[in-house]
Amino acid sequence: MALRRRGKERTIDYWPGFVDALSTLLLAIMFLLTVFVLGQFLLSREITGKDEVLARLNSQINELTELLALEKGGKQDLEDTLANLQAQLNSSETERSRLQQLLDKGSGASDSANARIGELTGELNKEKEISQQALSQVELLNQQIAALRAQIAAVEEALQVSEARDKTSQAKIADLGRRLNVALAQRVQELNRYRSDFFGRLREILSDRENIRIVGDRFVFQSEVLFPSGAAELNEAGKVEMAKLAQALLELAKEIPPEINWVLRVDGHTDNVPLSGNGRFADNWELSSARSTSVVKYLIAQGIPANRLVAAGFGEFQPIAEGDSPEARQQNRRLEFKLTEK
User: Fold this and answer.
1) What is the DSSP letter of 80?
2) Which intervals of the chain form a coiled coil (predicted)?
3) CATH no. for residue 288?
4) Phi-psi group of 275: left, alpha or beta (phi > 0 → left; psi -120 to 50 → alpha; rest → beta)
């Protein structure tokens, strides 16, 4: 909440706090959506791989089914041939028996009857050989069919294992996403709580300064409070203010758990007035970067770990007040401090 003076009275502006809450909520939602999209992308890639394996297994099953149908057709043809041969064999046996009876009845069989018997006997032997070959082929086909059935059973078992593994993977991914969302929400809540504590302590320390204000989730110092005009070295008043900020940050750092990877970002901004060519800095980019770097180095000297600080310069390209009036330019010459996460 910003404090504004009107005469001798103070009024409380709740709007920045409301903007702060909305910004934090929007950032959390965007991060959750990013994690969810990433989880969905990884899940779709794994499911696509499973679908390709299932497609190959189904193709193999179809091929084996076609081979099995062909083998069954060949087996049926051989069985039909065997039945025909068996019928012919039975007919030949009957004819032979009839001729043998005639031969037995006739005391002297004629040479034609003996010749006929010999022919029938030869045909019978040939048919027996053909029948035996057909039986061998049928046996071979039975063995091939058994092997095909074993292959189909193995493929079906592999397919079932793959489907079970796919279901397990999907369940693990869903559980991982749920746990990640819970952990992320907890981290966001914790960081928000410590950011709120940090803001509260700085409000208590710096509440009596009119040239220090809150914009969204950042503390804003006017450059004139910290630096001489056109310079990047902290003045005495600026060192006092930064020492207060460092003390508040050191006290808060003791309470923040080590797993929260927080940083304090220092952003330097200038107005849109070009620097003179004979100065130390070539342009506002260099001036804003040098000022944020100077603040970071001073905070390090006050005991803040260097890995918890970030310095950035934006020149005149991110104004908070539009226009070229002296008031707008004064607002745009500023240092912003934001407690955030790496």
Assistant:
1) H
2) 68-165
3) 3.30.1330.60
4) beta
Residue 130 sits in a domain of what CATH number?
Answer: 1.10.287
Residue 328 lies in a domain: yes
In 3D space, the residue among 256, 242, 257, 229 whose CA is nearest the CA of residue 303 turns out to be 242
**pTM exceeding 0.70:** no
Tell me the residue range of the domain where 114 lies.
43-186
pLDDT in tens, the chain (342 residues): 444 444 445 566 677 777 888 888 888 888 888 888 887 888 777 777 777 777 887 887 888 788 777 777 777 877 888 788 788 878 878 887 887 777 677 655 556 667 777 777 887 788 778 878 877 777 887 888 888 788 888 888 888 887 777 777 777 776 666 666 655 555 556 556 665 666 566 666 555 555 677 777 788 999 998 999 889 999 999 999 899 889 888 888 888 777 778 899 999 999 999 987 667 888 999 999 999 999 999 999 999 999 999 999 999 999 999 989 999 999 999 999 988 877
Nearest to 209 by CA among 195, 219, 218: 219
